[in-house]
Amino acid sequence: MDLNEENKNGKPIIDIEHIAKIYQMGSEFVHAIRDITLKIYKNDYLAIMGPSGSGKSTLMNIIGCLDTPTKGKYLFKDMDVSEMTDNDLASIRNKEIGFVFQTFNLLARSSSLKNVELPLIYAGVGKSERDDRAMKAMENVGLADRVNHKPNELSGGQRQRVAIARALVTEPSIILADEPTGNLDSKTGLEIMNLFNELWKAGNTIIVVTHEEEVARFAKRIIKLRDGLIENDSFNHHQRITNDTSTTSSVTNQ
Amino acid sequence: MNIGESITQAFDSVRMNKLRTFLTLLSISIGVFAIIGAGSLVDSINSSVFSEMEALGRNSFFIYRVPVLEMGHSWRKYAKRKPITYTVLKELKKELTLVDFVTAHGFSMANTIEYGENETDPDVNLMGVDENFFAAQNVGITKGRPFTAEDIDFNRNFAVIGNDIVVKLFPNIDPIGKRIKIKNHSYTVIGVLETKGAVLGEPQDNRVIIPLTEFLRYYASMWEYDLFITIKAVDYESLDDAIDEAIGTMRSVRNLKPWQENDFEVETNESLTEQFASFTGFLSYFGAFSGLIALIAAGVGIMNIMLVSVKERTREIGIRKAVGAKRRWILYQFIIEAITLCQIGGFIGIVMGLVASAFFGSLMNINLILPYSWVIFSIVICTLLGIIFGAYPAWKAAKLDPIDALRYE
Ligand SMILES: Nc1ncnc2c1ncn2[C@@H]1O[C@H](COP(=O)(O)OP(=O)(O)OP(=O)(O)O)[C@@H](O)[C@H]1O
Ligand SMILES: [Mg+2]
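Above: the input record for the complex with magnesium ion. Below: its predicted structure, written as tokens.
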């Protein structure tokens, strides 16, 4: 069953064809990704699953333009990413992609508002607009009262919310989350997944890498990787959609 | 670009690596201190000396035994030269026609002056002068009179005293006509000098002036006293002729054969000023040079700190890159940080340098000239230092691979 046929609202945001990523370790070659073809459309909600070492993070990094494939073709909104320079990739990451990491990756010395502002700084947005937009993003993740807190003054779940606010603030085409609940307890993890659910309902395109069925259940589409290949790519008939808005007051597609 | 953030980061760096940063900033401070201190002191000395020299006018010239600022190898040659004696001075006064005056004086430090039961500290300068001294050096008399040619010729036991002596020995008495004693020789006070303060660190009021002939007889008899003769030509146009005339007279007085070279030095006010300027110029360049050496050492320290900082902040660099920082932003960030570090050190050095030169300036009683050009030079140098030594660590940071950087523990 090919889901790419089923989902036809226009052109794909991400169009990957037969990519491979091969690392050389001394004389050995590690095929982190062997041959993957994948299209992702606007407002997709994708979960990438698979055993450890199957290439999930590698694929995510390539999709997120943090890395480039060794082989194959990657079109991001019709732009050929495999041909891009470092600077071009940086500017795609800045404008089009929002990252959420397992370990949050916030700047330890900066307040949460400053952390959320960071992508806007590199986008060249002026100070006052930056403040407004960062503030709005903080509101969207329900942390308007925590803007002056440093990461070490926040709980894990709150840190991840700040990271999500940072991912949202530039209004990216796609949000990539690599094990976003991996460092959280299951209750907090669930809150984060609810937040993603709200974001998705508000029109965002989301890819989540996860080990956990519980987390993958929120996605519209689930991809299973094994040894750098797609083992299974299917529509999630049991997608969990919450109406619970207690954690997020007003999530909108900014 | 967020300059403020980079500057804050630099201060953070200072806080987090206290000792290492302290040592590096210290060497920057020392370097800048050397530059500013030497520069400001030399500028101040120069301006004092030049205003002195200017007062003499540009048609003055000088005759003396050995070069003033000679630091070279030929001191042996100079050591053998005959001293310039009072006889030479008399001869010049008699023979020279193109001059306003010929004058010379002798000088001895650390004398005690007595009057009745009272005596001064043993720190009074004693000068032996001729009748032209007062006019030539612009020394005024507030009470009584200066020496006349006769006072000198008949080596009369007269003295003209400075205000400090008046204060110490004649608190409520008119000193004129009183007899003071210097090393068991008695002198009648005939005049009081105008108060002058101090010039180049020499207090001008704590002195006693007696006729040159007296001075040479009693105070310079152990050795033949070398005179430093000042001559003023009638005008600037006759300066060269007056110098030729003086050289001719000197040679005949000292019995030089035509093939022998002069055994004395002649310099004009201008050439002496130039020599002095080149000497102090050398001093300030020496200061600047040693400062630069210290700064280069500091630069290596800055590079080291920045390299450690880049390493410690690898993950941060990864985060910045992940959210879209281009290479050049990372590069700028770290270079600005390095410049900030250098400027912190430089600022401390500038302050230290100014304080030290103000201190020495007040010791030497010269007005401190704020060495703007050296301050600007230091700021520029610190900026360059930051750029040069920050460049490599910044470049290392900028070219980090975002994934590797994010994975870094
Ligand atoms: N920089 C690298 N150099 C060499 N090999 C690498 C590198 N990055 C990843 N690999 C290898 O590529 C394979 C896929 O790694 P990847 O991180 O994508 O796995 P993953 O599916 O995310 O695993 P996990 O669930 O443990 O996070 C692994 O075998 C890994 O060892
Ligand atoms: Mg992974």
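Notes for the reader.
Residues 42-66+86-235 of chain A form a domain with the Rossmann fold fold (CATH 3.40.50.300).
Chain A touches chain B through 25 residues (CB under 8 Å).
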